[in-house]
Amino acid sequence: MKDKLIKESKYYFKCFQKKDIKSLSNIFASTIYLEDWENKIRGKKKNLSFLKTIFSKNSFNIKVQNFFLHKTKKIVCCQILITLKNKKKIKVIDVISFNKKFKITKIEAYKC
Fold first, then answer.
1. How far is CA 8 from CA 2, 24, 81, 90, in A?
2. Tens-digit pLDDT profile for residues 6-17
3. Region label for 71, one of left (φ > 0), alpha (ψ between -120 and 50) or beta (otherwise)
4. 54-67 pLDDT tens trace
5. Cα 11 from chain centroid?
6. Going by fewer Cβ within 10 Å, which terminus of the chain is more open, N or C?
7. Are strands 28-35 and 104-111 parallel, antiparallel or unpaired?
8. Residue 50 gets which letter from DSSP?
C-alpha cells in the first residue's frame, strides 16, 4: 500500500504540474473536497473548474520535497515548494486522502 500511495501522489503532482485537467479528473473521486488557506470546494466538477482558473492565470513549478505516510489510513502528507513565474516561492503542506480505489477524496493544503 505504501508504494501505491507514493506512486499515486507523485502522479497527482505530475498532472498538476502539467495542468492536465483530464488526468486530474480521472484520479479525483466524485466527492473530492479541497480546502486551502483561501477556499473550501466540494465535488469534482467544482474542483476541476477551480483548477482550470488557477492554471489559466498562473505559471509555476512544483517540487515535492518529502512524503509522509499514515501507517493505517490511505493518507499522504507532502511538503511542497511552489515557485511562481515571478520567482516568488511558497511552502505548502498537502494532506491527501485516498479511497479504496486510490482516488483522491480530500486535499487539505496549508501554506507555511
1. 10, 11, 19, 23
2. 999 999 999 999
3. alpha
4. 999 889 999 999 88
5. 10
6. C
7. parallel
8. H
Q: What's the confidence (pLDDT) of residue 103?
A: 97
Torsion of the alpha carbons at 11, 13, 18 and 23, rounded to the nearest 10: 50
What pTM did the predictor assign? 0.92
- Give the burial class of 61: count Cβ atoms within 10 A of its Cβ; 0-12 exposed, 13-18 middle, 19 or more buried: exposed
Q: How many CB atoms lie within 10 A of CB 92?
A: 16
Match 473548474 to its residue by C-alpha cell.
49
Q: Where are the alpha helices (DSSP H) in 1-112?
A: 2-18, 21-27, 44-57
Residues composing the chain: 112
- Which residue is it, cell 489559466? 56
* The three cell numbers locating residue 37: 488557506
